[in-house]
From TrEMBL, chains A, B:
PANTHER family: CONSERVED EXPRESSED OXIDOREDUCTASE (EUROFUNG) (PTHR43708), GALACTOSE_LACTOSE METABOLISM REGULATORY PROTEIN GAL80 (PTHR43708:SF1)
Every Gfo/Idh/MocA-like oxidoreductase N-terminal domain range: 18-145
Origin: domain of life: Eukaryota
Protein name stated in the entry: ZYRO0G04664p
GO MF annotation: an example: nucleotide binding
Record-annotated Gal80p-like C-terminal domain positions: 156-307
Length: 437, 437
């Protein structure tokens, strides 16, 4: 059996909260403000922001003042920030395309900072696989405990699906179908969205973002990586129509070099399970299907996870389960005699799991921070808890690390290569740790 | 505009009905008895059975007597049957694995039969592609008008979907997802089903049957063939559990060499449309999805075709349409001025198309016979109707021929090769007519 899967953090003030240094937090806008900041506010006994880095000094000072970060010191110089000893964890919440140029020198400078223990990097983990491999290796050599923002793993729906399967409630998985709608990459582009999102190489394409998050969740739920894969990638909409804030066409188009459709299929190592996954980039015009669907079929039951938005890591979902639960089958008691089967034995159960007011955008990031605190403070009193771990893998406990992220980065790279080579690829090698570490 | 898509056959007795010679019709059982016989009975002004071939003379005579085929003569010798002049059409309704050895000599013998015009062959068109190519060429050299039983093309749901798309009611197609459940190929096997169904090479595997029919319908609806494809084929259930007539396990297993799962994806030539298609072989345990789904997404609407059974060619379906109809957009009138747009312009329409009592097993075969009669008698008075055509292609009128069947046979062959080669294949060549004809 596992440890209690719920976080055990308390609201009792903590003498030594985790001191956080932020890159990418701004009082005015951005993902860090929207999600990291509320998570830390809610976990004020576990985390305190002690440093804010911004090249623009006024911005750093304003952010500290406006967000009332009374314990924080502003930095405009990456070296001073990286060596600032009053920091346990550095959060790099900038776009994927800027991560490499910040994190590599940061890791080098931070060698002189013996207090620094954690490095938290936003998905998509650099612009491409080559950068991600280098960042992974540099962080491993530096000896930091890393965290990657594949926060969908903390979604209660993903956890519940994983639990149902792990506890054998659908039997052996024999088939999986996934379908997502990635709304950004369609015929229209809001003038508010930066062009970089639609240029290849920035790590913001639908394979890297929508597929990356989704396939990480699928592997996490099923507790298996892929053995072989094939992909076809389409850019059928090379020009997008610009629309204004009300959605009205502005009479101009803008080029798009990122894909608008991914067809992916492959099989899982465990059980040789066929998996089909399609990602459609367009406004959710699908009238008769949901914009996010994972269908998992097993020998004794099925799980369906559905959502109105195509992004499982940040949208609210519904989980449907139907199957014959294994705990209705008699289990040997302590004296070796089988326990009497319950009256429900062999009957089919149905479960609809939905948290009506769950705010997934905040909730999943919040739960990721909770799991960092659970680890740091060992709030669950796990005996012999190691001081560091390389990857979360398929554990319920813990949090995804750069190694977990690297596996997805390598899968994404294989997806692009499969498409360009026109080949079905063996991807078992993507689990290998970098040879030089 | 098209000719009226409905059949124009009448019930007025016809002086010269199409004289049909049957191979595979038996009074006691079989697909011909179940579907061809009722179709011909309903179309008694258009068709009359004049010959029945069976190696077993008693069976031939009994079939004629028991089915009251008063105009029919029994044959036990293929040569005499093939040269019998009182026949316009020969129907070969035997299993795929027996078709080649019957049809090849039949075609040779029939050179001496100047009355024979039509050859109707059951899907799956021989055991494999090589045989199908030979049969196609032999029939072409013989100069017969061929018919292949891809009768799903005649399904009213398929016709309606094709019509909605053809008349531009969903705009440009940009994405297609197909999911079918092929119940036979799962964990359990009824002892009533012959072993041959589960042995590779008989043309009865789920790629050749379920996928073959379904992908033919998809191409027919969208009016496009594929440009490239990739497939992964699984046989994860190499032993099936035998069950009795009540579905109870008999304590024995039987080997299965045919696949139980197909993952297919590719893109259509027209519009480079991404298509995903998964065929799962197992009892329909999917609780939260239908056993047959085609989702077609377009720029201005969507079509969903659903069914409870995974076989579109012989199960009743439901069609859902939502979109902006093109006939609500102003059209130039005769004098060149635009007609006033209707009040419905730009509004979204919804259609649920379902014939509650439609019997698809009989209905689609019946409609196929209707279309043969429509052609033979030119019941629609189409001017300059050719006396023969090589293929139906994507026409509403007519019926699928061996060339249409050969294209599907070649696609199926490419599916198997894609899987074994681990390659994404260009399949544009499958449209080429055999070079020797």
């Amino acid at each position: 059996m596992y440890h209690n899967k719920r976080s055990a953090v308390s609201t009792v003030p903590n003498e030594d909260p985790i001191r956080v240094g932020f890159i990418g937090l701004s009082f005015s806008k951005g993902w860090a403000l929207k999600t990291h900041r509320p998570a830390i506010l809610q976990l004020s006994s576990q985390f305190v922001i002690t440093a804010v880095y911004d090249e623009d000094e006024k911005m750093a000072i304003d952010t500290i003042e406006r967000l009332k970060l009374v314990h924080a010191k502003p930095f405009t110089d990456l070296e001073s920030f990286s060596t600032f000893e009053n920091v346990d964890m550095i959060v790099v919440s900038v776009q994927a395309s800027q991560q490499y140029e910040i994190v590599m020198p940061l890791l080098e400078f931070s060698r002189r900072n013996s207090n620094l223990k954690y490095l938290f990097i936003e998905w998509a983990f650099a612009s491409n696989l080559q950068q991600a491999e280098k960042v992974y290796q540099a962080a491993a050599i530096r000896g930091l405990q890393t965290i990657i923002a594949l926060q969908g793993r903390k979604s209660p729906y993903i956890q519940r699906a994983k639990e149902l399967i792990h506890e054998n409630n659908i039997g052996e998985i024999n088939s999986i179908e996934i379908s997502c709608n990635a709304c950004w990459y369609g015929y229209e582009r809001s003038r508010k969205v930066a062009n970089g999102m639609f240029e290849m190489g920035n790590g913001l394409d639908l394979v890297t973002t929508t597929f990356g998050h989704t396939i990480d969740l699928l592997q996490y739920i099923t507790e298996s990586y892929f053995s072989k894969i094939n992909a076809l990638i389409f850019n059928n909409i090379p020009e997008q129509m610009l629309v204004d804030d009300l959605g009205n066409p502005m009479g101009r188009t803008s080029p798009k070099t990122v894909p608008d459709h991914l067809l992916f299929h492959g099989c899982l190592q465990r059980g040789n399970v066929p998996v089909s996954c399609t990602i459609k980039g367009d406004k959710p015009t699908k009238k008769f299907t949901k914009n996010f669907i994972i269908d998992i079929h097993g020998t004794r039951g099925d799980i369906k996870i559905e959502g109105d938005a195509g992004f499982a890591e940040m949208s609210n979902l519904v989980l449907y389960y139907s199957g014959i639960r294994v705990n209705d089958i008699p289990i040997a008691s302590d004296n070796g005699h089988p326990v009497q089967p319950s009256l429900d034995q062999g009957k089919e159960f149905m479960e609809v799991y939905h948290l009506r007011n769950y705010d997934a955008v905040h909730g999943n990031v919040f739960r990721l921070y909770q799991s960092i605190a659970d680890f740091h403070f060992n709030t669950k009193n796990i005996p012999n808890l190691p001081s560091q771990f390389v990857m979360q893998g398929f554990e319920f406990e813990g949090f995804p690390t750069l190694m977990d992220g690297l596996i997805i980065r390598r899968l994404i790279d294989s997806v692009y290569r499969s498409n360009s080579m026109g080949a079905t690829l063996d991807v078992t090698h993507i689990l290998q740790f970098p040879s030089s570490v």
